[in-house]
Amino acid sequence: MKEIVVFTAKDIGFNLVSFLISEFPQDNYTIIVCDPDKDYLVKKFLRDGIVAESISRDVIERFKNFEDNSIDWLLNLWGGHIFDELLLSKFKKL
């Protein structure tokens, strides 16, 4: 089982994440929804039984507190967020 953090936005991001989870349901996903329409998409994910949260400074800071290379994958599926080196250092694969 992989630990995967996904930053996503817009309906295309929703569709990509939904497909990813349907193809690899054994993995553990943390879904972070970016602007635009992040609140709408969080609700849409929840309707499909997928836990997601809106991007915020607190969410980003939470990941920065993890140990280096402690999370398997970072995926940016239409998310549009620019990641700094500290945050990127927490992931084994980008």
Given helix and strand content, the structural type is alpha/beta
Please give the CATH architecture: 3-Layer(aba) Sandwich
- Span of the ends, CA to CA: 17 Å
Largest sheet: 5 strands, parallel
State the helix count: 4
Look at the structure and give the CATH class: Alpha Beta
Beta-strand share of residues: 25-35%
Strand order in space, largest sheet: 3-2-1-4-5
Write the H/E string, N to C.
EHEHEHEHE
CATH homologous superfamily identity: Formyl transferase, N-terminal domain
Q: Work out the helicity level.
A: 25-40%
Task: List the domain count as a whole number.
Answer: 1
- What is the 3D shape? globular
What is the element layout, followed by pairings?
Blueprint: E1 3-8, H1 10-23, E2 28-33, H2 38-47, E3 52-54, H3 57-64, E4 71-77, H4 85-88, E5 91-93
Parallel strand pairs: 1-2, 1-4, 2-3, 4-5
Helix pairs in contact: 1-2
Main attributes?
94 residues, alpha/beta, Rossmann fold, 5-stranded parallel sheet, 4 helices
Can you give a write-up of this model?
- This protein is an alpha/beta fold and 94 residues long.
- The protein has a single domain (3-93), classed as Rossmann fold (3-Layer(aba) Sandwich).
- The chain has helices at 10-23, 38-47, 57-64, 85-88, and strands at residues 3-8, 28-33, 52-54, 71-77, 91-93.
- The chain has a five-stranded parallel sheet.
- The longest helix is centred in the first third of the chain and has 14 residues, at 10-23.
- The model has no long low-confidence stretch (mean pLDDT 94).
